[in-house]
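Structure in, sequence out. Go:
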C-alpha cells in the first residue's frame, strides 16, 4: 500500500512568511535585556582579552578622523580667510573643554553607557524618561546624519574624481542612496565588528593625509607670496588681531563638526583591554587606557585640523569652496589631485570613500546599540525593535528620507550634524558638572560649569543660525516619544516582572497555604491597624459569601517608580498585631506585581491561588490613566488582564474575585 509522508508531529512545515519572520527577528530574545548585548557592536571582548587602546582608538577614528573629508571645506565656507584662526579656537575648545569632560565620563561610566546613562541616574520618574528620550532624539540625529552626510561626501569624492566626473555627473543623489542601501544590506546580512579593518583604514587614511599636509605646507613655504597675500587680505578685512579673534569666536559654532567622535570614544570602552586584574566593578586599567585613547585621538585630530585648514585656505581659491566648486566637500582631495597628481589623488579618494562609508557603519552600529539599551527597558518599543534587522530597515528608510530632504548636500547637513554633536557634548558637560558637585570637588565643579556654559552657548548659537538641526532633532524626538508612548500603551498588560524573590517569612506563608486553598486579599495599606485588617476580611467574606473558616493572607504593594517597566520583585512577609499575615511588595505597578506573585505561588505550590479585590470608585478611563502613568488605579480588571496574557490556559490561570 502506498504511503504518504507527513511532517513530523509537533513540527509543522514552515512557510516562506514564517522563515522571513524568523530571519528578521533572529536574536530577539537576547536583545534589550539589562546587561545583555543589544547590537552588532555591543558584544564586548571576553574578560581580559580586549584590544589594545590604540587599536580601539581606530574604531573611534573612523567616525572622528573621517570628518577631515569635509571639515576643512566647511570651515572655509563658514570663516573664509579666518578659517585657520577659527579652527584654532575649535582645537582649544576640544582640548580644554570636550576632552576633560569625556575623560570624566569615562571614569563615571566605564561600561560604555556614556553621558546619557549618567543623566538617567540623576533623574527619576517620568521626567527622567522624557529627558532621556529627548537626548535619544538628538543622538539619533547625530548618528543618522553621520550616515547620510558621510555617504554624501563619499559620493562627492567619487563624482569629482577626474577619471569619473564625466560618467557620474549629476549622479550624486543616486550614488548616495546606493551607498546608504549598501550599508543597510551589510547590516541585514550581519555585520561583525572588525577592529582590524578600522586599524587598516585609519592608518592608511591618516598616512595619506599626512602626505597631503606635507605637500601643501611645502608649496605654502616655497611660494612665499601665498602667506603674504593671505595676511594682507586678513588685515584688509579685519582691522586688528582682536577683531579677528572675535569673528572667529562668532563663527566657531559652524565648525562644531570637528568635535564629533567623543561619544563614540566612550561607547567603545568595553573593547579596551585594560589590566589583567581589572574587574567589572573596578576596571581601573580600562579607564586609564580609555583616557589615553581619547587624549591621543584629540591630539592627532587637532594637529590635522589646524594644518589642513591652513593649507586649504591658502592654496584653494575661495570660489572653489562654494556649491558646485571643485573643492566643495573635498578640499584635501582637491589638493591631492592638484599637487600630487591624479594617480595619488585617486588613491586618496578611494581611502576617503572607504573611511566615510565605514563611519556610516559605525554610526549605524551606534544606533543599534543605543536604542535597545533604553527603549525596551522603558517598555517604549515594540517587540520587534529588540531585533537588529527590523531596526536596520527602519534606520535605512529614514536615512533615505534625510538624504532626499537635503538633496545629498554635505553643506546643508552640517547644521543638523553639529546640533546633534553639540547637544550630546553639552549634556555630557552638565552630567560631569553634577557628578563633580556630588563628589564635593569644588574646583572641578567650577571648571566643568564653565565648559558647560561654553557648549550651551555654542549649541544655542548654532540652533539660531542653522535651525535645520533642531528641526530634524525635534522630528526624531517627537517620533521617538510618540512611538514610545504607543508601545508602552500596547504593552501595558504585559507581565513586566523579571524575577520574584520571597524572604524566609514569605516562604513560610506560602508553604503553609499550600496545604489548603490559597487565598490572598489585595489591600491598599492605610493605617495598618487592627481595625483595617479586621474590617477588610469581614468585607471580603460578605462580598464573596465566604465562610468564617476561610484563611487569608494580605498582599500589599507599594509603588516605587511607576515610569519603570521591567523590574524584579522582592516579597517580604510579616505578622501584624499577632494574627494577620501580610506580604509586602515594592514594584512600579500594582497589578503586575500581584499577577507575578500569583503565578509564582502557583508554580511553587502546584495549586491555583485566588485573590480578592474590591471595585475602585471613579471613572474607568481615569483609573486606567492612573494605572498607565502611576502604576495604580483600576487594579482588579488590570490584574486579571495581565494574568490572561501571561497564562493562556484558563485551567492554570489564578482566579481573580471582585466584590
Amino acid at each position: 500500500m502506498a504511503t504518504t509522508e507527513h511532517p513530523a508531529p509537533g513540527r509543522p512545515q514552515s512557510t516562506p512568511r514564517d522563515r522571513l519572520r524568523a530571519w528578521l527577528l533572529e536574536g530577539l530574545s537576547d536583545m534589550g535585556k539589562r546587561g545583555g548585548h543589544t547590537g552588532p557592536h555591543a558584544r564586548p571582548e571576553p574578560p581580559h582579552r580586549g584590544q589594545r587602546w590604540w587599536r580601539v582608538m581606530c574604531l573611534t577614528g573612523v567616525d572622528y578622523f573621517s570628518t577631515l573629508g569635509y571639515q576643512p571645506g566647511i570651515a572655509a565656507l563658514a570663516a573664509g580667510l579666518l578659517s585657520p584662526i577659527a579652527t584654532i579656537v575649535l582645537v582649544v575648545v576640544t582640548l580644554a573643554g570636550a576632552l576633560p569632560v569625556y575623560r570624566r565620563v569615562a571614569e563615571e561610566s566605564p561600561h560604555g553607557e556614556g553621558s546619557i546613562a549618567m543623566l538617567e541616574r540623576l533623574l527619576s520618574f517620568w521626567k527622567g524618561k522624557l529627558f532621556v528620550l529627548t537626548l535619544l532624539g538628538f543622538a539619533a540625529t547625530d548618528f543618522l546624519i553621520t550616515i547620510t552626510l558621510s555617504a554624501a561626501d563619499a559620493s562627492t569624492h567619487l563624482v569629482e574624481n577626474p577619471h569619473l566626473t564625466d560618467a557620474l555627473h549629476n549622479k550624486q543623489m543616486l550614488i548616495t542612496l546606493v551607498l546608504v542601501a549598501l550599508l543597510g544590506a551589510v547590516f541585514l546580512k550581519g555585520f561583525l565588528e572588525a577592529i582590524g579593518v578600522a586599524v587598516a583604514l585609519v592608518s592608511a587614511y591618516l598616512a595619506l593625509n599626512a602626505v597631503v599636509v606635507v605637500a601643501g605646507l611645502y608649496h605654502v613655504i616655497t611660494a612665499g607670496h601665498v602667506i603674504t597675500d593671505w595676511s594682507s587680505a586678513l588685515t584688509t578685512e579685519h582691522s586688528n588681531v582682536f577683531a579677528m579673534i572675535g569673528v572667529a569666536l562668532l563663527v566657531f559654532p559652524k565648525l562644531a563638526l570637528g568635535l564629533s567622535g567623543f561619544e563614540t570614544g566612550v561607547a567603545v570602552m568595553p573593547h579596551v583591554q585594560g589590566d589583567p586584574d581589572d574587574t567589572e566593578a573596578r576596571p581601573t586599567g580600562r579607564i586609564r587606557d580609555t583616557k589615553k585613547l581619547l587624549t591621543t585621538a584629540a591630539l592627532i585630530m587637532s594637529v590635522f585640523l589646524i594644518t589642513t585648514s591652513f593649507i586649504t585656505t591658502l592654496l584653494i581659491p575661495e570660489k572653489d569652496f562654494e556649491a558646485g566648486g571643485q573643492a566643495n566637500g573635498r578640499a584635501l582631495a582637491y589638493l591631492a589631485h592638484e599637487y600630487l597628481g591624479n594617480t595619488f589623488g585617486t588613491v586618496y579618494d578611494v581611502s576617503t570613500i572607504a573611511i566615510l562609508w565605514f563611519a556610516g557603519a559605525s554610526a549605524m552600529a551606534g544606533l543599534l546599540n543605543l536604542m535597545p539599551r533604553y527603549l525596551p527597558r522603558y517598555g517604549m518599543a515594540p517587540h520587534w525593535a529588540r531585533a537588529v534587522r527590523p531596526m536596520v530597515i527602519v534606520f535605512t528608510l529614514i536615512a533615505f528620507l534625510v538624504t532626499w530632504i537635503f538633496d545629498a548636500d554635505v553643506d546643508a547637513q552640517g547644521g543638523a550634524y553639529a546640533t546633534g554633536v553639540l547637544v550630546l557634548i553639552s549634556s555630557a558637560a552638565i552630567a560631569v558638572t553634577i557628578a563633580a558637585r556630588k563628589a564635593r570637588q569644588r574646583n572641578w565643579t567650577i571648571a566643568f560649569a564653565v565648559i558647560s556654559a561654553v557648549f550651551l552657548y555654542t549649541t544655542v548659537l548654532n540652533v539660531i543660525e542653522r535651525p535645520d538641526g533642531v528641526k530634524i532633532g525635534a522630528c526624531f524626538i517627537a517620533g521617538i516619544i510618540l512611538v514610545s508612548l504607543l508601545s508602552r500603551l500596547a504593552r501595558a498588560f504585559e507581565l513586566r516582572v523579571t524575577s520574584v524573590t520571597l524572604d524566609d517569612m514569605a516562604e513560610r506563608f506560602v508553604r503553609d497555604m499550600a496545604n489548603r486553598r490559597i487565598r490572598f486579599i489585595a489591600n491598599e495599606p492605610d493605617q495598618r491597624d487592627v481595625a483595617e485588617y479586621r474590617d477588610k476580611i469581614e468585607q471580603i467574606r460578605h462580598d464573596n459569601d465566604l465562610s468564617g473558616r476561610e484563611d487569608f493572607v494580605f498582599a500589599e504593594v507599594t509603588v516605587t517608580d511607576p515610569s519603570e517597566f521591567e523590574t524584579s520583585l522582592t516579597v517580604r512577609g510579616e505578622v501584624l498585631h499577632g494574627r494577620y499575615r501580610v506580604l509586602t511588595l515594592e514594584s512600579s505597578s500594582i497589578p503586575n506585581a500581584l499577577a507575578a506573585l500569583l503565578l509564582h505561588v502557583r508554580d511553587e505550590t502546584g495549586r491555583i491561588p485566588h485573590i480578592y479585590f474590591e471595585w475602585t470608585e471613579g471613572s474607568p478611563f481615569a483609573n486606567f490613566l492612573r494605572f498607565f502613568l502611576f502604576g495604580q488605579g483600576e487594579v482588579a480588571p488590570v490584574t486579571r488582564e495581565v494574568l490572561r496574557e501571561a497564562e493562556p490556559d484558563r485551567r492554570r490561570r489564578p482566579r481573580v474575585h471582585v466584590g
